[in-house]
Amino acid sequence: xxxxxxxxxxxxxxxxxxxxxxxxxxxxxxxxxxxxxxxxxxxxxxxxxxxxxxxxxxxxxxxxxxxxxxxxxxxxxxxxxxxxxxxxxxxxxxxxxxxxxxxxxxxxxxxxxxxxxxxxxxxxxxxxxxxxxxxxxxxxxxxxxxxxxxxxxxxxxxxxxxxxxxxxxxxxxxxxxxxxxxxxxxxxxxxxxxxxxxxxxxxxxxxxxxxxxxxxxxxxxxxxxxxxxxxxxxxxxxxxxxxxxxxxxxxxxx
Amino acid sequence: xxxxxxxxxxxxxxxxxxxxxxxxxxxxxxxxxxxxxxxxxxxxxxxxxxxxxxxxxxxxxxxxxxxxxxxxxxxxxxxxxxxxxxxxxxxxxxxxxxxxxxxxxxxxxxxxxxxxxxxxxxxxxxxxxxxxxxxxxxxxxxxxxxxxxxxxxxxxxxxxxxxxxxxxxxxxxxxxxxxxxxxxxxxxxxxxxxxxxxxxxxxxxxxxxxxxxxxxxxxxxxxxxxxxxxxxxxxxxxxxxxxxxxxxxxxxxx
Lengths: 254, 254
Hints:
Two copies of one chain form a homodimer. Chain A is mostly helical. Chain A has one domain. The first copy, chain A, is 78% helix and 0% strand. Chain A is globular, with a radius of gyration of 19 Å. The N and C termini of chain A lie far apart (47 Å). Chains A and B meet through helix 5, helix 6, helix 8 and helix 9 of A and helix 5, helix 6, helix 8 and helix 9 of B. Chains A, B: Its EC number is 2.7.7.41.
């Protein structure tokens, strides 16, 4: 397959990809809390919608709760705490009514908690930390793909049949090195190394977890919002665990 | 029933209560992070054990995870974040093995997250905030009992048949006033009022949630560790939601 045919066969995928990169780059350059909040909020609402479908939940009230939570995150100083507000309200309703569907809590565990952490990451550590995150997650994904194509032999795990141990290891090594150089501009090198490694590994498992949910739901893509890329969750899955891990490591190691 | 017979009939309950008050008072006077961590850790492990039984989970590995998490909370600057560490590791194992029992996550939602918040409360806001919490939760409980005995007519909720709307309202009013005076020594009065009210309401629902769990499990007491008081969870249930709410309100309003 020539380079040209890779492009023509995946034209839609490439075009969508270029638009996504342009949008993310523009938002990074604007570097404003409200814009970041709005952007993450839009991505969050689509992801929440897809997660509701993966969990086979039909309850339109949940969207109002999700939107309300995100509005609160605009003014609350520590957005990641708001997950526990939902948890307490949910458990209280459950205890009071005794007939609340427990499954309704799932979309607040995933992907809600992750988006609250992504906002917290920007809030507490600035745009540089988000760029560092994007570098590590993107290179883990790209590295795993190419190393897997070239040297992949043994399957990594049944949940994601296309992933190989060699690919995953290659992706983590490449992303850790690239992340190390990016992170060294912001923090001391031992932290830069450790955080890049942790974030890269978390991104592999974030990806795997979304595959697991799709497999449980018996679907191929989480949705079809992004032409050629499937759903929103398919695109952001790598960030959903790694954003949490990055905040945890930055707080613990700095 | 004379006052004397109330005492003799509940002798064991009174004696245990006095010992508990003495232990809590001594720990408050010592006011040392390690001692608080150790005390909460012991209460946590018993509560975790009882929660495992309420959820009908038999897996001894979970105790090692709980203890490891608590050890990490000794050195991690923001203990409440550690809940998400467990969540990410759990979801990763679930995706990788595909045969992990999802129920095993429940004791990390309850009561683990709450104990991490109680430690965070001491960590970030000091012993005064814990004393304020104890005043509000204890008076909500005592107030609801006496007002309920005197003026209780309508049932509050089927989950806790002994609670009345009048008792609950009375308890919240009494605790909010007492908490207002305690809190005013630490923060401005509008915050003291709002936080005391929120914490008192949360304590009612924390209590209710534990009743719900026991009802679901079909047991009367969560355990029998405290003679005359039932289990550890029966004693601390009021603190499990209110500790979270107190941290959230202090962070949001100060």
